[in-house]
Inverse folding.
């Protein structure tokens, strides 16, 4: 196996901030690092934990969940810790709303780029539950000057929906026209959702918005319903990686589907670590996201 690390995120103002303090992220570095090219990076976001202390454990679980796929695929995994009072994510309302957890995520990526040889064109973002809401917000909106879709080659969402953050406060027509149809860059999206998940119907609505606004199912939109609830079976990490690893972010180009080659694609016999992310304890109408941790 590779190396399990805790990385201190270096960002101006965080150390003395009463909410953020000194930020840590859990990182996994694969044992077989490429010598002829930089490595991809997957940033993974946990769901609502219930408290800041429990969020630390959830970030560790998210990193461990992805470690097996990262080892087999030769990419780095980084799992930051949410800063909200209930162990969820603080998202900005607009580009001047700072600091937020989006500042933390951006600082983490830049820190890892200084520490490792990371391919800036192959940075991916995945989230579970409230982490999935954040992932869709980053993919579809531009509420942060630096952390937005232009920074990533692709996105993975497990039990996350646009109603959580990206389209919060909008009706269905406004969500489709203002958020999903905005801009020209349709970065690839992988969606995994349990058929008994409370968010199932919301995810079906998002699927219609994606395929109706420029994403192509099976090419840039990957739809994976499964028998289960609000959870992340360990085998999903391999599926998500294999769907997204063939994409690279080249400036403002819309990434095209290409055939990934070894060592990046994981063959079926690869065995990831099988661990489930802890089910969110949120009581909010949108599972995984408490009212206090919505956009401010």
């Amino acid at each position: 196996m590779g190396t399990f690390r805790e990385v201190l995120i270096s960002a101006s103002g965080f150390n003395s901030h009463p909410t953020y303090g000194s930020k840590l992220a859990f990182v996994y570095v694969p044992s077989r690092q490429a010598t002829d090219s930089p490595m991809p990076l997957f940033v993974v976001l946990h769901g609502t934990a219930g408290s800041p202390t429990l969020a630390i454990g959830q970030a560790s679980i998210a990193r461990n969940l992805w470690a097996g796929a990262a080892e087999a695929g030769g990419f780095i995994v980084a799992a930051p810790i949410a800063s909200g009072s209930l162990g969820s994510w603080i998202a900005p309302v607009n580009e001047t709303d700072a600091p937020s957890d989006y500042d933390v995520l951006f600082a983490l990526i830049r820190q890892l780029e200084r520490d490792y040889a990371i391919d800036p064109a192959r940075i991916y973002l995945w989230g579970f539950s409230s982490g999935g809401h954040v992932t869709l917000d980053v993919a579809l909106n531009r509420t942060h000057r630096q952390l937005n879709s232009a920074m990533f080659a692709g996105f993975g969402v497990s039990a996350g929906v646009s109603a959580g953050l990206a389209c919060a406060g909008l009706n269905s027509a406004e969500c489709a026209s203002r958020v999903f149809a905005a801009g020209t860059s349709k970065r690839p999206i992988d969606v995994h959702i349990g058929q008994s998940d409370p968010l199932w119907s919301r995810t079906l609505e998002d699927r219609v918005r994606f395929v109706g606004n420029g994403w192509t199912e099976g090419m840039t939109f990957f739809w994976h319903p499964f028998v289960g609830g609000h959870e992340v079976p360990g085998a999903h990490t391999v599926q998500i990686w294999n769907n997204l690893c063939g994409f690279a972010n080249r400036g403002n180009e819309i990434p095209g589907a290409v055939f990934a080659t070894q060592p990046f694609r994981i063959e079926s016999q690869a065995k990831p670590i099988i661990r489930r992310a802890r089910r969110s304890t949120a009581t909010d109408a949108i599972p995984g996201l408490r009212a206090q941790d919505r956009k401010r």
